Amino acid sequence: MSFTGVDSLDTSLSKSNSWLADIDAAFGTKDRRLAYRVLRAWLHSLRDGLSVDLAANFAAQLPELLRGVFFDGWNPSRVPHKYDRNEFIARFAREAQVRDSDVAKSARLVTGVARQHMSEGGIAHALDHLPAAVREILEPELAGSAAGQRRA
User: Fold this and answer.
1) Looking at the domain assignment, is residue 117 inside a domain?
2) How many domains does the chain divide into?
3) Residues 126, 118: Cα–Cα separation, whole Å
4) Residue 15: Cβ-neighbour burial (10 angstroms; 0-12, 13-18, 19+)
5) What is the domain extent for residue 63?
């Protein structure tokens, strides 16, 4: 089924929808608005912690639609931002519209889904450039378990 009549956009919509469905499943919900808010917060929080080159390399792996979400509102002259743990949590919670106490779980779930859809090396390389306190929030507890389930 074609939504737009443009193959590349239809593929991007399908892949982006798959990300949201997997986030829904990880949360155990059918709330696509929540899935989108959390994914958007994850993408923006990650993006702003990376240099311009790293952000561009990371974004290249995203479906076209999610690449647009990733870069929406980006100010490359203000990156990389070196978050401390509390600042990262506050920013993520505000953008995702979740409680501060839900940020770690939400961020880990999205990281796990990203690992299913992206190359392990691309995610690891991006996370390696973040402060340790932020990496601890973003890393899923069982990081290796999702790697074998990555999609092509």
Assistant:
1) yes
2) 1
3) 12
4) middle
5) 7-147
17 near 96, Cβ under 8 Å? Answer: no
Whether the ω angle into residue 80 lies within 30 degrees of 0, i.e. cis, is yes
Cβ atoms of 140 and 60 within 8 Å: the answer is no
Q: Compute the distance between CA of residue 108 and CA of residue 113 in angstroms, rounded to an integer.
A: 9
Please say whether the beta carbons of 70 and 43 come within 8 A.
yes
Instruction: Report pLDDT digits (tens) over 57-113.
Output: 999 999 999 999 999 999 999 999 998 999 999 999 999 999 999 999 999 999 999
In a domain, 152, yes or no: no
The verdict on residue 130 lying in a domain is yes
Task: Give every CB contact of residue 31 below 8 A, 6+ residues apart in sequence.
Answer: 24
Closest CA to 126 of 72, 62, 37, 40: 62
Report the CATH number that the domain containing residue 118 is assigned in CATH.
1.10.490.110
Q: Cβ contacts of residue 91 below 8 Å, gap of 6+? A: 41, 45, 83
